[in-house]
Amino acid sequence: MAFVEKAQLLDEAGMRRALVRIAHEIVEANKGVENVCLVGIRTRGVPMAQRLQEIIEDIESQRVPTGILDITLYRDDLTTIAQQPIVRKTEIPFAVDDKIIVLVDDVLYTGRTVRAALDALIDLGRPARIQLAVMIDRGHRELPIRADFVGKNVPTSKAEQVQVMLRETDGEDRVVLVERAT
User: What is the pTM (predicted TM-score) of this model?
Assistant: First the structure.
């Protein structure tokens, strides 16, 4: 299915500003970073979490533990995405028990990815609290899930998609709104 770009929502500088703001909000909301850990949801949540880790370290002079969460086996649409889904490794090098976990993802849409991430995370232990940070919240929730930290709210139609492109995965930093080509 082909898509055509409708608008650029954020450029590289806008993404950087959003991440810096989110990092400050995480620090403020948690009164520092003691017991705070970042967990990026594969794929684009991972480099976003790593960037937030660096920004928070610049702000607080303290390195926040960061991990990677693969939610493939927790998805409720697993049988529809592929006959042999690719399961990647979850890499969380710290105990989640009694920690404040900030899940990081690129786009919040229906809430199903976050639900799967919550299930995967709870299987690893019992965090004190779980928060959610996303670059874009585009609405259309199907589950009662909301983000605690949002880079940008973008109302969209269901025919549109938001594509977050990151230097680490896509060779450039920008967020675009695309629509199915007719």
Answer: 0.93
